[in-house]
Design brief:
- The complex is a heterodimer of chains A (424) and B (146).
- The longest helix of chain A has 21 residues.
- Chain A is α+β, with helices and mostly antiparallel strands and 424 residues long.
- In chain B, 6% of the residues lie in helices and 31% in strands.
- Chain B is built from two helices and seven strands; from the N terminus they run ααβββββββ.
- The radius of gyration of chain B is 35 Å and the shape is elongated.
- By secondary structure, chain B is mainly beta.
- At the A-B interface, helix 4, helix 5 and strand 13 of A face strand 1 and strand 4 of B.
- Strand 13 of chain A pairs parallel with strand 1 of chain B.
Chain lengths: 424, 146
């Protein structure tokens, strides 16, 4: 019995954040639009018109201002409440096509279509249903491995003739060779800018070069990860579909401030919010952390200002996910690290040594944390019901100056009763 | 058999193994069982009734008075389903030249019109040069009474 070739689809939303905004702003159709990162710093999503004008992904917005004025590029602050809701809709629709799927990011999902009857029709149907039900355009790339599915998706996006769907498995082996010889190696999943340069030194410029590269040499120079990539390009699946997102090993909550912060109380206020967010995530995945690390940062781009980037970690006496316990530690650590006269630009907390709650090892020196677990579930339930931040830690929310700068955020069209879109 | 007095005054061996006592783990009903117990059903859920396809359903708030004849007033909330195929006579949320509008869809004999439900607004004939698309079909209108 021969093994069936895997028909693994990667569905990727086109210009996702911009597309979400356009669903509720039809007047933005054909207008060059970009969505900016936190604090309106960098470009994180571009409409095709903005791409054509030469705006780069990740480019700082202040660099684009002249171009933006000349061509009327519209910049929007990121509206993560909207993007998350639209993403949930897209993922729910895609998951109905196969029980085996993996949500890979906010705008990408692997769907295993192996054994699906009428594969071609189904892949087009998948694309059309997402567009019909959500208004978000997507492309579908199908291949025998995750790496080739990702590459197929790139082809579906780049070539209008594919009509948004491309199946690598439909190619003959000669067609595969020809196609991969025409694609630069930096399009391969996991091959970044630095690796591209190093691969070029070994004469590997195209995907095909990498696919047929001498394995022992490749392994010696680039290690087993690259070997896996090569095997994936040859059609041998090495990266499995993860049906359940693995629980995070580290949780980071940090943010750049809207303006420089000089005051320790403002830093502590911001830190409390990071603590609350990080601990809520920890509780949502039913785990607790044993180590916390707190850091402060000045603005490293301001060479004219003195720089100070301290960081302190502490192992906790007992693993916890209690916001109040973590907050006491974070508060203490911020106090220890703080030095006056620095312009702080960023702060954050990282929780690590994360283990499931069931692994609690009791300690006869430290009292168990059990009584507060009920308090925390009550906090989570209230925040879920009445909106994030409804119940806060008392050190949270007295100061506003560290908050995100979001000068042109769209309303929460789908998640806030008072912000529904209007129709006449 | 009565315990003899000399046995009571002498040490006795005690079993070292723990003795487990059964504790009743189930509820013991007191009084009469509820006659409704076999007939319980989940309470009516408005989300279920009003939202047929949750991944394709969006809410819009009404502005203006062009649809009062259909019982749609300013401030009402429309339930809009993008997965319903628009048909003649449906009330639709349409995009006409990149603007949202809610109207009754007329589609007969090759003629497409958006019809207001208020005499002061004339029907709008869709012409070749119009950029027209039905965004979704209105399935319910939520009208607050108090």
């Amino acid at each position: 019995m021969s093994a069936q070739i895997q028909q693994l689809a990667l569905v990727d939303c086109n210009n996702f954040y911009v597309s979400c905004e356009r669903v509720f702003r039809p007047d933005l159709k054909d207008v060059p639009v970009v969505v900016l990162s936190n604090n309106d710093g960098c470009v994180v999503s571009r409409s095709n018109e903005s791409k054509a004008l030469g705006i780069k992904m990740g480019q700082p917005w202040f660099e684009c201002k002249a171009l933006a004025e000349e061509h009327g590029i519209l910049a929007l602050s990121s509206n993560y409440a909207l993007y998350a809701d639209m993403s949930n809709r897209v993922m729910a629709i895609l998951s109905s096509f196969s029980p085996r799927h993996e949500v890979y990011s906010i705008d990408e999902c692997f769907v295993d279509l192996t054994g699906t009857p009428h594969l071609k029709e189904t892949s087009y149907q998948m694309r059309e249903r997402v567009i019909a039900w959500t208004g978000i355009p997507v492309c579908v790339g199908i291949g025998p491995t995750k790496t080739l599915a990702k590459l197929a998706n790139h082809i579906a996006k780049k070539h209008p003739r594919s009509k948004g769907v491309f199946n690598y498995n439909d190619l003959t082996s000669t067609q595969q060779d020809n196609l991969l010889s025409r694609i630069a190696v930096d399009e391969v999943w996991g091959v970044g800018r630095k690796l591209t340069v190093r691969l070029a030194e070994h004469g590997i410029d195209t995907v095909q070069d990498l696919r047929v590269a001498h394995l022992p040499t490749l392994r010696a120079a680039f290690g087993v990860v690259m070997e896996k990539t090569q095997r994936e390009l040859q059609g041998i699946a090495c990266i499995d579909l993860e049906d359940v997102t693995p629980a995070k090993k580290q949780i980071v909550a940090s943010r750049s401030f809207g303006q420089a912060v000089y005051n320790v109380d403002v830093l502590k206020d911001a830190m409390s919010t990071f603590v609350a967010n990080a601990c809520a995530k920890l509780r949502a995945q039913e785990s607790h952390a044993s180590v916390i690390q707190v850091f402060l940062r000045t603005n490293r781009f301001r060479h004219d200002q003195p720089q100070y980037m301290p960081s302190l970690s502490v192992p906790l006496p007992q693993p916890t996910n209690d916001s109040l316990v973590v907050n006491r530690w974070a508060d203490y650590l911020v106090g220890r690290m703080f030095k006056p006269d620095y312009a702080y630009k960023k702060a954050g907390i990282m929780l690590s040594e994360i283990t499931p709650i069931t692994h609690l090892q009791s300690d006869w020196l430290e009292p168990s944390q059990a009584p507060s677990a009920n308090l925390m579930s009550a906090v989570d339930a209230l925040n879920k019901r009445f909106g994030r931040g409804f119940v806060k830690i008392s050190t949270q929310g007295a100061f506003n100056q560290w908050k995100m700068r979001q000068e042109s955020k769209s309303p929460n069209y789908t998640t806030d009763w008072a912000s529904l879109p209007l129709v006449a | 058999m009565p315990i003899s007095s000399n046995l009571l005054n002498h040490p006795r061996q005690v079993l070292s193994a723990p003795l487990y006592l059964d504790v009743c783990a189930w509820k013991v009903p007191a009084g009469f069982p509820s006659p409704a117990a076999d007939h319980t059903q989940e309470r009516v859920d408005l989300n279920k009734e009003l939202i047929r396809n949750k991944d394709a359903t969006y809410l819009f708030r009404v502005k203006g008075d062009s649809m009062t004849g259909a019982g749609i007033y300013e401030g009402d909330t429309l339930v809009v389903d993008r997965s319903v195929t628009p048909k003649h006579n449906h009330i639709v949320l349409a995009l006409l030249n990149n603007e949202f509008t809610v109207k009754r869809l007329y589609r007969r004999g090759g003629i497409v019109k958006l019809v207001a439900e208020n005499n002061i607004y004339p029907a709008r004939l869709i012409k070749e040069e119009d950029d027209f698309v039905v965004w979704g079909v209105v399935t319910f209108n939520l009208h607050k009474l108090c």
